Inverse folding.
């Protein structure tokens, strides 16, 4: 995530017209929290892309037992799609020719020195037959060009330079995430990094695109030119450096792909389908969200757990996000790159109140907390699933009226359907340990059915819970029919009740399906929680914050990506069943499968 570990960041603004005298001294104009309070249990931090990649590589090696390896210096040469096989889930309709490049060739390609398809390379070849291909190959995506897809949008006139340096300066906020608007010399963003490195995003006001509107010639831009621009913005503070770790220059372009996939077999993600300014880590953060949205779906389809139709939701969900990103970036870039307004009558200048509001909006967007997915067979919402604002075809969702949707959403007003599952602390029923509930929604590819059981000390409510669990445990239930050796292999059931923890007992008061038995590990003690007071960490009042009635409760489905997919009463089991029948592969019921009893 883009940001800085400190609790606060500064917006620093140079507004000579508002200050006495023509000194042009930079003055702090406002402060905003890096992580708005209550937004997340995590704070933002700055991590270099190479470090994040290392986390992924280490975990791939750890959890795949070296069966999966990431290869460097490999480039695609051709991609063929057998359209007669794309609808066969067992087929491998994609043929990809790969070239393993020599070190010399890889270096040449990295610097734009040719394409493996031009026949100039000495590399060795390899043919791969695949079910799916994902092109995460950047703004100049080979995959996108091969498919004949395009990016639509525009380039701005804003040219920016980026430098990672160890600065020598007395500027007081050099270790804070700081934004400087100068009166005449452009804008600058300071992002502190590890080992005393600071990343500077520097507007180059003296570099312009040519008169014909073509992109600026980045090859003519030098580190000296970029740093001289930074000096002017920092004035009257002096800044110098002895060591530069990395630098680049770019022109802000805002474009969205016309298509995110071909035949539901070849997919594009990240910069391959949306380009924008790289400030605040929005490119990497949103790109990883693209891939996560896509990959859990492909994984479940490949394993035969989910229906292939769920793959249609990738474009309908993520293209809307990409368009929202472009719209936000369009506004943010212009606010960021504009000069500050001299006064309220200066309509051509940037209002710092608008700029601050834009930053706060960005916090929500970059962290994925403002995402609100539309209707599909994965999101139970009213509306036309064929009109997602992007022209894509999506899998049909459960037919639900606006009136019924509003009634069900009212059961959990703090868990909007289509948005991320919020997190509040609850206590484990068995040992009293407090947990952020979202910690129990692990990213392991499983759906969650969350039973908010209400006050189970009330006899009528206890009867409702028992009847719901009887339906859940029946041989024809979706839970018993999923493709997995254990009852929780595909769908995990979690319970949060509202009675005092010491007034109930796990094995006495909760049906076995809520704490299933395993012949090797015994009873499950990590499935049932209570909205009660922690001796050490107070009370988070989860039911109140989720907007759920403490007496009657409700049932919620969370997708594998923690997005709320369905909300209903305990009596709405048939509709709950229909949800999973609409997106998962559920074999005919077989009594006694998916679970063991003592």
């Amino acid at each position: 995530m883009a940001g800085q570990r400190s609790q606060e960041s500064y917006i620093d603004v140079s507004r000579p017209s508002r200050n006495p005298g023509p000194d042009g001294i930079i003055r702090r104009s406002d402060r905003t929290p890096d992580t708005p309070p209550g937004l997340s249990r995590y704070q933002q931090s700055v991590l270099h892309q190479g470090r994040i990649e290392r986390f992924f590589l280490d975990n791939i090696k750890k959890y795949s037992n070296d069966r999966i390896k990431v290869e460097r210096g490999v480039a695609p040469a051709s991609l063929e799609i057998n359209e007669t096989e794309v609808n066969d889930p067992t087929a491998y309709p994609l043929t990809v020719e790969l070239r393993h490049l020599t070190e010399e060739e890889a270096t040449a390609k990295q610097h734009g020195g040719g394409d493996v398809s031009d026949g100039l390379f000495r590399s060795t070849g390899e043919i791969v037959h695949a079910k799916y291909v994902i092109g995460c190959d950047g703004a100049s995506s080979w995959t996108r060009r091969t498919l004949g897809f395009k990016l639509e949008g525009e380039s701005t006139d804003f040219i920016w330079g980026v430098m990672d340096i160890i600065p020598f300066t007395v500027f007081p906020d050099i270790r804070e995430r700081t934004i400087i608007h100068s009166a005449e010399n452009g804008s600058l963003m300071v992002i502190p990094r590890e080992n005393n490195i600071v990343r500077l995003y520097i507007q180059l006001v003296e570099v312009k695109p040519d008169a014909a509107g073509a992109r600026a010639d980045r090859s003519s831009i030098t580190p000296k030119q970029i740093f001289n621009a930074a000096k002017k913005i920092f004035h009257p503070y002096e800044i110098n450096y002895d060591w530069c770790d990395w630098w680049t220059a770019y022109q802000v372009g805002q474009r969205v792909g016309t298509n995110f996939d071909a035949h539901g077999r070849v997919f594009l993600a990240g910069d391959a389908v949306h380009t924008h300014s790289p400030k605040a880590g929005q490119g990497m953060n949103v790109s990883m969200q693209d891939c996560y949205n896509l990959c859990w779906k492909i994984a479940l389809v490949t394993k035969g757990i989910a229906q292939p139709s769920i793959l249609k939701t990738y474009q309908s969900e993520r293209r809307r996000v990409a368009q929202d990103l472009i719209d936000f970036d369009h506004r943010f870039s212009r606010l960021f790159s504009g000069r500050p307004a001299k006064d309220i009558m200066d309509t051509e200048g940037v209002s710092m109140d608008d700029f601050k509001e834009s930053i706060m909006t960005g916090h929500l967007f970059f962290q994925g907390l403002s995402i609100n997915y539309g209707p599909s067979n994965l999101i139970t919402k009213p509306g036309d699933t064929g009109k997602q604002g992007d022209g894509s075809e999506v899998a049909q969702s459960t037919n639900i009226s606006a009136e019924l949707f509003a009634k069900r959403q009212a059961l959990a007003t703090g868990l909007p359907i289509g948005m991320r599952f919020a997190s509040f602390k609850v206590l484990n029923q068995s040992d009293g340990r407090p947990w952020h509930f979202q910690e129990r929604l692990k990213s392991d590819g499983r759906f969650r059915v969350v039973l908010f059981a209400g006050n189970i000390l009330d006899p009528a409510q206890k009867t409702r819970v028992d009847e719901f669990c009887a339906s859940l445990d029946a041989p024809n239930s979706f839970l018993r029919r999923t493709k997995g050796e254990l009852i929780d292999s595909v769908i995990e059931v979690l319970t949060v009740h509202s009675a005092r923890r010491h007034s109930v007992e796990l094995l006495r008061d909760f049906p076995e399906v809520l704490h299933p038995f395993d012949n090797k590990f015994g009873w499950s003690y990590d499935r049932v929680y209570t909205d009660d007071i922690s001796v050490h960490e107070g009370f988070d009042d989860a039911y109140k914050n989720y907007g759920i009635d403490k007496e009657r409760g409700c049932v919620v489905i969370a997708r594998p990506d923690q997005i709320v997919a369905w909300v209903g009463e305990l009596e709405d089991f048939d509709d709950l069943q229909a949800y999973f029948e609409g997106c998962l592969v559920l074999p005919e019921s077989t009594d006694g499968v998916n679970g063991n009893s003592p």
The domain at 1-66+155-256+329-372 is CATH 3.30.9.10 (D-Amino Acid Oxidase; Chain A, domain 2). The chain has 13 helices and 23 strands. Residues 1-10, 12-22 have pLDDT under 50 and may be disordered. Residues 313-337 form the longest helix (25 residues).
